[in-house]
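Students often ask why inverse folding is considered easier than folding. One informal answer: many sequences map to the same fold, so there is more than one right answer. In these notes we will look at a single instance of the problem. The structure comes first.
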């Protein structure tokens, strides 16, 4: 019993003592509320009980806010005596004198702090940071240059100097410091590229870009032995989408270093993604010219033909063009063989046979051959199965295609590949007029991890709901579904005839916007960009309340930016999408494109 009483008394004494302690939360709140007199009193009490640096700093700040400069000065000087190594305290004292308009004393403290620097990186950085925080950029530069000298090059402070120059608007100094890091070795290249990407414009004619290029060219001329500058210059040209210039630089580097073409193999897909087919072709041809013993030879051979196919099918082409492309495929296969290493190349040839040369029997035979390859991973086989199923949709073998889609869906159930197969199976049911079954599958896919699959599933589901209700005539939807199948089969003329039939027989039907949109897609596929924009504009202007409005708008923007070279119009469309369709799937793309066209810096 006595022990319990002792414990209770101890707790009571401790609680009373604790209650007398100053309140840190209360002190912080006083500072936030601007009640500096109360804050100063609380922090003074806190510091007397627990003399830590934070409480002292807050106490000094409260004194400064109250214009109790003498008190603040005494506190800072007391700290300086206790922490002679901490030169940032002298900067704080100098700033205090500056607040009192005693610029001579302020300057004296700033200069003294720099004069006391020792060859210690932590001390140098601390003083620099103190000057930076109060925007004394010239003293920052003086500190860092002295630090560089004291440390004798063991740490250059280039990034810190570059930050200061940026704040001063001295881009020449900024770029100079970043580029100087390349003298220190390959390890800095990626870091410098990452930083400078946020410091330049996409417009190659901008003042900053021209300044950087000028400095780079001087570095290249005066540091011929350091190829990092050439590599960096090629990277800069790629940021500006000057792929021809980048090709020249990378080809020179490859020859100079006697490399195997890896730089050009990296450049080609980037150029291709930006629809610069010629640079992609030149890059692969350069690698192929190195000979069959080259590490990248086989890959370059296949990628060259695939690039030529993309270039061909992106514009107008003839049957002769397609036949010549087939020959290139066949000669490449004859050289490289049919095996798991060429499987995806064979899959692309199968696609060409079915959807462009209209020879599905060759396509099916080739894909079945691919599925027999040994040592092929299951994912690669699944992709071949999806391609084979697509071709069987093309030939009307719907049961076989449904079976293949189902196999992939089952094998990769939680994977985007399986979800893609499920969506295509639902689309197949839609083509066949099995609208209820299709909708059931689409309702599941609306929760897909892939936003694009989910978006497509939502659109098709709503299309079915709107046009196949209990009181609806499903004939127009059946006709439209047939037009979708014809579009999938690249039978564009037949597709257009079917769409016109729906308009003729069911004038003013709810499918009118979908029909217009499909016609716009066909025009775009045929490279008739003026007609495509006109049709997309009609969709947007007439049906801006419907699901396809943002799709029409993004396509109008892309066409003007990439094909009609009307950057002003493209920018207007992107801006409208951002303001009127903030929840659109295309917001990220539109924001990025809009900022680029406006001239902002974009990562």
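Output (designed amino acids):
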């Amino acid at each position: 019993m006595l022990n319990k009483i002792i414990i209770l008394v101890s707790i009571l004494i401790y609680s009373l003592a604790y209650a007398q302690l100053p309140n840190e939360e209360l002190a912080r709140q006083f500072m936030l509320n601007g009640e500096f007199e109360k804050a100063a009193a609380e922090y003074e009490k806190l510091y007397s009980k627990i003399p830590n640096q934070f409480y002292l700093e807050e106490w000094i700040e409260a004194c400064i806010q109250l214009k109790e400069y003498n008190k603040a000065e005494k506190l800072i000087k007391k700290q300086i005596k206790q922490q002679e190594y901490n030169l940032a305290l002298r900067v704080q004292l100098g700033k205090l004198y500056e607040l009192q308009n005693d610029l001579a004393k302020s300057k004296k403290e700033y200069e003294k702090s720099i004069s006391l620097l020792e060859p210690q990186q932590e001390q140098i950085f601390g003083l620099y940071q103190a000057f930076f925080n109060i925007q004394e950029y010239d003293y920052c530069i003086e500190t860092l240059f002295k630090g560089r000298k004291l440390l004798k090059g063991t740490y250059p402070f280039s990034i810190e100097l570059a930050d200061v120059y940026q704040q001063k608007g001295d881009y020449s100094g900024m770029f100079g410091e970043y580029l100087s890091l390349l003298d220190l070795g390959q390890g800095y290249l990626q870091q410098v590229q990452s930083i400078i990407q946020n410091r330049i414009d996409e417009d190659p004619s901008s003042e900053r870009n021209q300044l950087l290029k000028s400095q780079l060219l001087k570095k290249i001329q005066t540091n011929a032995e350091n190829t990092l500058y050439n590599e960096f210059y090629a990277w800069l040209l790629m940021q500006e989408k000057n792929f021809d210039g980048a090709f020249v630089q990378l080809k020179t580097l490859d020859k100079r270093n006697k490399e195997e073409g890896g730089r050009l193999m990296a450049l080609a897909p980037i150029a291709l993604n930006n629809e610069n087919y010629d640079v992609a072709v030149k890059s692969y041809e350069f690698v192929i010219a190195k000979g069959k013993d080259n590490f990248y030879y086989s890959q370059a051979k296949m990628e060259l033909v695939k690039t030529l196919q993309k270039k061909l099918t992106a514009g107008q082409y003839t049957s002769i063009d397609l036949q010549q492309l087939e020959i290139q495929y066949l000669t490449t296969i004859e050289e490289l063989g049919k095996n798991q290493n060429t499987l995806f190349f064979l899959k692309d040839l199968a696609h060409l046979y079915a959807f462009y040369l209209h020879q599905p029997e060759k396509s099916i035979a080739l894909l079945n051959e691919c599925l027999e390859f040994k040592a092929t991973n299951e994912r690669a086989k699944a992709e071949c199965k999806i391609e084979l199923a697509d071709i069987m949709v093309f030939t009307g073998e719907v049961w076989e295609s449904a079976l293949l889609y189902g196999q992939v869906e089952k094998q990769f159930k939680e994977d985007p590949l399986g979800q893609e197969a499920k969506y295509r199976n639902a689309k197949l049911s839609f083509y066949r007029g099995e609208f209820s079954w299709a909708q059931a599958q689409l309702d599941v896919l609306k929760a897909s991890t892939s936003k694009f699959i989910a978006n497509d599933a939502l659109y098709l589901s709503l299309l079915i709901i709107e046009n196949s209700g209990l009181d609806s005539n499903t004939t127009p939807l059946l006709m439209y579904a047939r037009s979708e199948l014809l579009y999938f089969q690249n039978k564009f003329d037949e597709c257009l005839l079917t769409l016109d039939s729906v308009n003729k027989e069911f004038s003013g039907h709810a499918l009118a916007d979908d029909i217009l949109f499909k016609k716009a897609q066909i025009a775009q596929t045929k490279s008739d960009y003026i007609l495509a924009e006109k049709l997309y504009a009609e969709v947007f202007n007439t049906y801006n309340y419907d699901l396809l409005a943002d799709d029409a708008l993004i396509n109008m923007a892309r066409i003007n930016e990439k094909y009609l070279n009307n950057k002003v119009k493209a920018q207007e469309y992107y801006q409208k999408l951002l303001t009127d369709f903030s929840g659109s799937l295309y917001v990220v793309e539109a924001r990025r494109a809009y900022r680029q066209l406006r001239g902002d810096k974009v990562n």
